[in-house]
Design brief:
alpha+beta, Double Stranded RNA Binding Domain, 3-stranded antiparallel beta sheet, about 30% helix, about 25% strand
């Protein structure tokens, strides 16, 4: 591609309003990395730095990560290797409460046909998330409700951080995907969560991997915030 674009593109992407995207995976080499990021990170021309980035990509992809569809998380990975990354906040803890409350409170008297259907879970009343963190040395504790644990955590983070980072007011979630990494482990399998956000018509995706789907979602949410703040 770098030597002769015509070997891969029958027309220029720009001629049809598109853009070229070079994907990075465990099979990528230094040339692919430089073609994708050399204009933004000239430090990658150093062979040892590029090798460190590619080694981390390979290690994480063996754990279930996939950076081909997670450009935001990949960009943060590069920044960490270059010593440029600064987290937007320092997490103390997060908690999620009330999952399945409406179902647990439903009682059955044991007689066939006598049970009543469980009450409906109204939007915004089923799950509550608490987040305690520090921004610039200032502690913040926020509680929010949502339609599920991920939504509640997202709202709690927004309450805690929007004052310090106005860009988060313009960030909207556009897609959320969950994939099982290794189905052989059954319900204890690691899952891969991909979350897509949009800021000022710029879309980016972030990734999280964990056996706990809430923790995997949290990782992807935090990456999205760090990426949006760093890009701003």
């Amino acid at each position: 591609m770098q030597r002769n674009e015509r070997t891969y593109e029958h027309v220029s992407p720009l001629s049809v309003g598109n853009a070229r995207r070079i994907l990075i995976s465990e099979m990528a080499g230094r040339s692919s990395l430089l073609a994708k990021l050399e204009d933004r990170y000239p430090e990658l021309r150093d062979a040892s730095t590029a090798a460190a980035v590619l080694n981390e990509v390979q290690d994480l992809e063996h754990q279930g990560y996939s950076f081909e569809a997670a450009d935001g998380s990949f960009d943060l990975l590069v920044q960490r290797q270059l010593g440029r990354w600064r987290p937007a906040f320092d997490l103390k803890y997060y908690r999620v409460h009330g999952i399945g409350t409406a179902v647990r409170n439903h009682s059955i008297n044991g007689k066939k046909g006598d049970s009543q259907p469980p009450p409906s879970i109204e939007a915004g009343q089923a799950v509550e998330a608490t987040v305690k963190l520090e921004v610039g040395g200032q502690p913040r504790l926020c509680v929010a409700e949502g339609n599920g644990p991920v939504d509640a955590l997202s709202h709690a983070l927004a309450q805690a951080l929007e004052g310090a980072f106005p860009v988060l007011r313009r960030m909207t979630l556009t897609d959320y995907k969950v994939r099982v990494v290794n189905s052989a482990d059954g319900t204890g399998a690691r899952v891969r969560v991909l979350i897509e956000h949009e800021v000022d018509r710029h879309r980016f995706s972030t990734i999280g991997v964990h056996a706990n789907i809430i923790e995997a979602s949290w990782q992807a949410l935090v990456d999205a915030i760090d990426y949006a703040v760093a890009r701003e």
